[in-house]
Amino acid sequence: MTPLYTMRSLAFCCLLLAPLAAARELQASGCTQVPEECTKVDCNGVLKQECDEASGRVTCVCQSAGLASCFPGAARVALPGGATKPMSELSLGDSVLAVGPDGRLQYAAVVMFSSRRPSQRAPFMRIHTDAGLNITATPGHYMFGWKAEQAQAAFAALPSPAAWPYVLPTQLEVGDLVPVVAAVAARAAAGGGSPALARVTAVERLSGEGVFMPHTLTGTIVVDGVVASELTSIVPPRLAGPAFQRHLATALRTACAVLPASAVEAVVRVVSSWAHGTPDASLSYAALTMAAS
Ligand SMILES: *[C@@H]1O[C@H](CO)[C@@H](O)[C@H](O)[C@H]1NC(C)=O
Question: Which domains are seen in the chain, by residue range?
Answer without folding.
Answer: 3-63 (no CATH), 76-292 (2.170.16.10)
